């Protein structure tokens, strides 16, 4: 899939090109156009114009029908989406087939179904006459779109996370300018093709490619014509976007980084806890914001848990590469730092050799560490790779103190057979999501997001619709 901008219903390739590199073997996949400030200006202007055109006059039913056409289009071209996602990210094909593409289809269908809920629902209340001085008044609330929404999505789950924002934004009647990661432009371009084929008016969805600071990302998030920003990515990038948005007091929805803890109690089913930690630490080579990097295990089962987790990590194969050479080098630098800080490397700790084309790619070994103090940088800083540090605890209160001693607060897992403990501990973990005896089990209707440096706001179901629409009170004196 050739990467192109999509502006006002027209595909174009303005701007200098930069290479797209396959993370599996380091080969060049093609060239991507870097959007200039003029391209971003055109995209925002096209989105603004579309608000005043047919899209702005569409009913909820018509918008829902349009979203379902997009969902059908993704489904019809699912193999192309899988091919593009695998090529850009290097993830196992089964992951793209069972997670990325089905969830993208599900996002558009789910928000088409929800369209008759929050944005179109009026709240009516009769209030006494003191509010106006005479008689009574009827107050009701309607919701209107925010306007032009900038959607900036990351490279780790590019299709899933972009559609999770684009679908509710469009459902609420907004127009969108999307900027995917420069590392993963292909499925975004294919989505633009699907939206074009679905017949959405020109300018309703716009796509610009490019980098972040001093480039397309900064041009878009600091644009005075943007009415809201939805972003998923690193906490530092979120802070930069906030500074950019502050000049225009632009509302933001952020899902940012994490240094996610797991608490494994001695009464847990160790088979399930080990299996779950393998999934939560090493899925997509740890390149998911929800992945576990800190594991705290009750002391009576600590040694057995570490031994079993290390054995499983050493046996892993087909887990996929880092997204880029730069990210591989960052992860490997943390492995070196861990050793300098005094870690015991139970498994992994380096770059594998395959003896084939993959040796030109950006792979690192699934890694299990122990022995570091909680003050170690390796324990406190987000690595975003296939690595976890395992430490013991003795009491429930100690486990909670360890889990909560972090600047991040996105997700956590709790492993225990004690139902009372599960209900007691889960609400006290300072994260936006707590899974008990599972990981990444998601219902699209539930709130998703983090606390502290892990984000602002919530996504999912009506929580997304709340962000992408503005409540307006109407008061009629009777």
UniProtKB/TrEMBL annotation:
Keywords: NAD, Oxidoreductase. The active site is at 255. Gene3D superfamilies: Aldehyde Dehydrogenase, Chain A, domain 1, Aldehyde Dehydrogenase, Chain A, domain 2. InterPro entries: Ald_DH/histidinol_DH (IPR016161), Ald_DH_C (IPR016163), Ald_DH_CS_CYS (IPR016160), Ald_DH_CS_GLU (IPR029510), Ald_DH_N (IPR016162), Aldehyde_DH_dom (IPR015590), OHmuconic_semiald_DH (IPR017628). The keyword Oxidoreductase applies. Residues 16-471 form the Aldehyde dehydrogenase domain. It comes from the Bacteria. GO terms for molecular function: oxidoreductase activity, acting on the aldehyde or oxo group of donors, NAD or NADP as acceptor. Belongs to the aldehyde dehydrogenase family. This is Aminomuconate-semialdehyde/2-hydroxymuconate-6-semialdehyde dehydrogenase. It comes from Actinomadura mexicana. The lineage of its organism: Bacteria, Bacillati, Actinomycetota, Actinomycetes, Streptosporangiales.
């Amino acid at each position: 899939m050739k990467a192109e901008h999509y502006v006002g219903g027209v595909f174009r390739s303005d701007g200098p090109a930069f290479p797209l590199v396959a993370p599996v073997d380091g080969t060049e996949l093609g060239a991507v156009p870097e959007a200039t400030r003029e391209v971003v200006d055109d995209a925002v202007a096209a989105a603004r114009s579309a608000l005043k055109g047919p899209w702005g006059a569409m009913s909820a039913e018509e918008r829902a029908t349009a979203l379902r056409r997009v969902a059908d289009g993704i489904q019809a071209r699912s193999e192309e989406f899988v091919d593009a996602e695998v090529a850009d990210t290097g993830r196992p094909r089964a992951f793209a087939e069972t997670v990325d593409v089905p969830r993208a289809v599900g996002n558009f269908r789910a928000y088409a179904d929800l369209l008759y809920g929050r944005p179109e629902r009026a709240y009516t209340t009769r209030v006494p006459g003191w509010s106006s001085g005479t008689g009574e008044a009827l107050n009701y609330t309607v919701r209107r779109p925010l306007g032009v929404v900038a959607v900036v999505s990351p490279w780790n789950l590019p299709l899933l996370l972009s559609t999770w924002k684009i679908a509710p934004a469009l459902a609420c009647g907004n127009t969108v300018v999307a900027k995917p990661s420069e590392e993963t432009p292909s499925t975004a371009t294919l989505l633009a093709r699907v939206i074009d084929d679905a017949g959405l008016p020109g300018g309703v969805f716009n796509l610009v490619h490019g980098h972040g600071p001093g480039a397309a990302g900064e041009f878009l998030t600091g644009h005075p014509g943007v009415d809201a920003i939805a972003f998923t990515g690193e906490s530092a990038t979120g802070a930069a976007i906030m500074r950019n948005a502050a000049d225009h007091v632009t509302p933001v929805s952020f899902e940012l980084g994490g240094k996610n803890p797991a608490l494994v109690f001695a009464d847990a089913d160790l088979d399930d806890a080990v299996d779950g930690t393998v999934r939560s630490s090493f899925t997509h080579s740890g390149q998911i914001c929800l992945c576990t990097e800190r594991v705290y295990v009750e002391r009576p089962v600590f040694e057995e848990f570490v031994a079993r987790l290390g054995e499983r990590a050493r046996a892993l194969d087909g887990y996929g590469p880092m997204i880029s050479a730069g990210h591989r080098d960052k992860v490997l630098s943390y492995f070196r730092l861990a050793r300098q800080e005094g870690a015991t490397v139970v498994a992994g700790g380096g770059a594998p050799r395959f003896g084939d084309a993959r040796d030109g790619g950006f792979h690192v070994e699934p890694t299990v560490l122990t022995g570091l103090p909680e003050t170690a940088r390796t324990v406190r800083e987000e690595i975003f790779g296939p690595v976890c540090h395992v430490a013991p605890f003795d009491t429930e209160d100690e486990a909670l103190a360890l889990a909560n001693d972090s600047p991040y607060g996105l997700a956590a897992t709790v492993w225990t057979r004690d139902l009372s403990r599960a209900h007691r501990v889960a609400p006290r973990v300072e994260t936006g999501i707590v899974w008990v005896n599972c990981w990444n089990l998601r219902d699209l209707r539930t709130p998703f997001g983090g606390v502290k440096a892990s984000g602002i706001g919530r996504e999912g179901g009506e929580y997304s619709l709340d962000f992408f629409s503005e409540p307006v009170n109407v008061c009629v004196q009777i």
